[in-house]
Amino acid sequence: QVQLVESGGDLVQPGGSLRLSCVASGFTFSSYGMSWYRQAPGKEREFIASITTAGSSTNYADSVKGRFTISRENAKNTVYLQMSSLKPEDTAVYYCKAYSYSRPSYWGLGTQVTVSS
Could you give the C-alpha distances from 34 to 13, 42, 66, 87, in angstroms and in order? Predict the structure, then answer.
């Protein structure tokens, strides 16, 4: 059974930091690229960041470039999103996604991040 479980979401003040984790099971984690998306209330889900299978290449949305860092530990079947200099507009449910060009993608259920004073 495929599972992606996000954690680490919290209420944080503007300018603060959080690290999100996504633990995968039920598939060969190292064979999938991993990405993070977010969805704010009333808005469409948007791409945030991605990382290739071995972690050699990353990509970021302009809105988070320089503030967020995606990384992965294949030995732990885990992908991370380090978020810093958080802004109220970063408030959203954050989802991880496993993707492969030759296989179906998998999504987690999300973790809530709220940035507010």
Answer: 27, 25, 19, 24
Please check whether residue 86 is in contact with residue 115, taking contact to mean a CB–CB distance below 8 angstroms: yes
- Quick one: what percent of the chain has pLDDT higher than 70? 100
Q: For residue 113, which of 3, 5, 17, 4 has the smallest C-alpha distance?
A: 17
Is beta strand 103-107 parallel, antiparallel or unpaired with respect to 92-100? antiparallel
Write the pLDDT tens digit of every residue in 73-101: 999 999 999 999 999 999 999 999 999 98
- Which are the contacts of 47, defined by CB distance < 8 A and separation ≥ 6? 35, 37, 61
Q: What is the pLDDT of residues 36-54, one digit of tens each?
A: 999 999 999 999 999 999 9
Ranges of beta strands (E only) in the chain are 3-7, 11-12, 18-25, 33-39, 46-51, 58-60, 68-73, 78-83, 92-100, 103-107, 111-115
